[in-house]
Every structure is written in C-alpha cells, then in structure tokens.
Write a structure and sequence with these properties.
Length: about 325
Amino acid sequence: MYKVTNEINVDSEGQEIRPHGTLAYPVASYYNDMNNALVIWHWHEELELIYVTKGVVRVGVGSVEKTLTVGDGCFINSNVAHTVCKVDSRGGIINSIVFHPKLIGGRHSIYWQKYLKPLIENEERQFIAFDSMQSKDSQIISLIQLAWQAEADETPGYEFEVRNLLSQVILLLSEGKSGKPYSPTPKELRDMERTKQMITFMENHFTDELTIKQIASVAALSEGECLRCFKRSTGLSPIQFLKDYRLIRAAELIRSTNQQISDIATQCGFLDMSYFAKSFKQAFGDTPTTYRTLGLSDHRSKYCLMRRAEDLE
C-alpha cells in the first residue's frame, strides 16, 4: 500500500530518520500532493525514484533546479540533499519510491560491487532527470511506474516483482544510457557541504536567537560569504530557512500535543504571537488553531521543510 506523506523527520544533521519499508523489505512507495507544502532540504541513505502524475513540480539538487511535467521522472542518489515543490497555483502530484540499495544486493554481492557501488559513488550521477518526450528515457520511466504500482498494490509475490523492476532501473542507470545527469562542480560540492554544516547548526539551536555571524562561524565563513553560499545551495537565506524550520517544528507540536499554541510558538523561537500566526497561515494555509482542529488525517500535503514555490521564482 502506498503512503500519503505528511512530513519528513530529520536528525540533527538533516538526514531523514523515517524508515522506508522494513529491515527485511527496505522499500516504500509514496503519494505526494505538493499543494500547500512547506518542505526542508533533506537527504537519506536510500535511493529515490520520482515521477510526476499531475501538474508541474520543481526538483532542487544543489544549485540545480529541474522542472518536471506530467510523465517526467528523476533519480536521486544516496545521501544527496534535495527538495521538491510545486511550480504554480495548479499544484503538482508525484509518486515516489524510496529503497535501500541492499534491496538489490548486499555489500558483499556482485550486484553491489559491479553496479550499486559505482553508481552511488559517482559524483556525476547524484541526480538524473528523465524526459518523457525522449524515447531513451521511456523505458526507465515505465519501470519506475510499474515498481511503484506493484509496491502499492501488494499483490501476492509483489516483493519479487518490485525487486526485479528496481534491479532493471539500477542496470539502466549504471549503463548511463538513460536520463540527463547533473554533474556538480567542485565549488558546488563545497557549497553544499558547508550548507549542510549550517543547516545542522540551525536545527540543533532553532530555539535560540541566532545571528548570521553565529551561523557563518560554523562553516568558517564571513557573514557575506555565508549568505551567498547558502543562497547558491538552497535558494534561501539562512534566516528564511530557520523560520521555516521553526514553523515545521511548531506544526509537529500542534498536531501531536495538547500544549497551548502560544507556548509552542515561544518554544519554537517565535516571541511575537501575531507574527507566528501570520507566518503559520502563509506556510500551511490554515491558522494554528484550525490546523489542530482538522487533525493529521486531513493534512494530505507533504508538510516538510522545503523551499516554497514562490521562493524559487
């Protein structure tokens, strides 16, 4: 059964901690409605495959932003920071399948040594986009769709079918005959590593009154270069990112606890209640009170900390 994702939980380093599937079967499929989404840059050890079923979405990896329309797809490699959002008011829906490499083959297998390891360690293949209008990409897009549907349907023996389909995807990716890869420059790689350091610091200290000077010092940068580096990597300023991170933490507490909303706002670094309420409504489309009243089941959007579409224009 596919899952409607409502949030991405990350650890102190920004790495996603939500398990995808189980230890015995490390794969999961997700339905993601990108309307009213607030999402953070995140990364995970698993590989991720995405295809668009409705509207238009934008995938961000480092300084690269790729727009995908219905029928398009992409591959996101292990431990690559990324983000996805809608492009305009029409919104967008994506289906994604996230799986650990060990589903295909363990570290002592020929599958790992010959195919998975070279792919995962190839910095030129951190992100690969698939264009539905290109015949060379149609096969891999079809495999992604079939794997997602098989994992979602869970018909008898589906585990074999999913593993087989994803193995075919890995083979095609290893051959390098499909998709358009993104090749980061050494400067982009350095920027993203520094940005990860700053993100980790902000996530660990989001309740404090942080300054640009403090954030910059974590990556040994001047304040000016901190702003430029963070903007190049995420499209945001550090303060914008910090505000969004505080909002998502507040949303989690509003959903999962009975604490007073004013106490939650203060706990998450918002000292002005009116500013918090206004910012929350802009981010999630509802006031904090309405958001709590609706309950988690009615929040079908992927409430994650990510760049909003208007931040990318």
